[in-house]
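Extended Data, panel c. Modelled sequence:
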Amino acid sequence: MRKKPIAALIYDFDGTLSPGNMQEFGFIQAIGKSPSEFWKASDAIAHGQDASGILSYMKQMFDEAKNAGIKLRREDFMRFGQDIELFEGVKEWFSQVNEYGKSKGVVIEHYINSSGLMEMIEGTPIAKEFKKIFACSFLYNEDGEAEWPGVAVDYTGKTQFLFKINKGILSIQDNKLVNASQMEEKKRVPFSHMLYFGDGETDVPCMKLVKMFGGHSIAVYDPDIPRKKVNARKLLRQDRVNFMTPADYRKDSQTYELVCSIIDKIAVDYHLLQLSKFDGR
């Protein structure tokens, strides 16, 4: 039996840790387009051909970069990622939560589960905080240039990564171990020890799944955009999440207080579980 419980904090990225779509913090400007122009063209591909919105935006990025004479290598994506704006307190969040978990005897792990681009997230100053970044990515040719989508993560596709975290599987391409039968007590991170942070429709299946299996789903919203709060309240009212909170990650925030309380619960529940196995001998 593991001596300490593991709590997995799983985050969407765009709208959850960052106030906008990651493509809007440098890439779209580099190709000479406005965000509205880029997304309108991407949506036209998806709607016009009844295609995946995720694959459509990846194609749009590829085509626009080619037209602008911009090479898309992994290091180029990472360079764009350096300019992604983050919500208040995000950079300090991870060390503070880790320290609080340690004080309660709970091991904290952080994961990304995003329909954005892994390569751009890897360029952010917080990339090192994550045990694994599950997100879209490209395949690269022998010259190191993007040539084809490698991973496309849509709203239902995100759910597979919850089961991988549950079983301690970090490989994106694995489809054997994740589907293999495993006793509950052998699973590395129980769903009840998961905290899922999301802001929108692509997060709904994950939010619902984590909540249904006893975990904690949290709808975060940008306090500067009224409709975001309306959407979060709707998710709470529809019983798709356990909590809603502003996307403020500072130590004196409601988000920090909420997460610390959930960590307290995980610690107490784990202790009670151990006591229930004591037979007096």
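The two ends are 18 Å apart (CA to CA). This feature is highlighted in the accompanying rendering.
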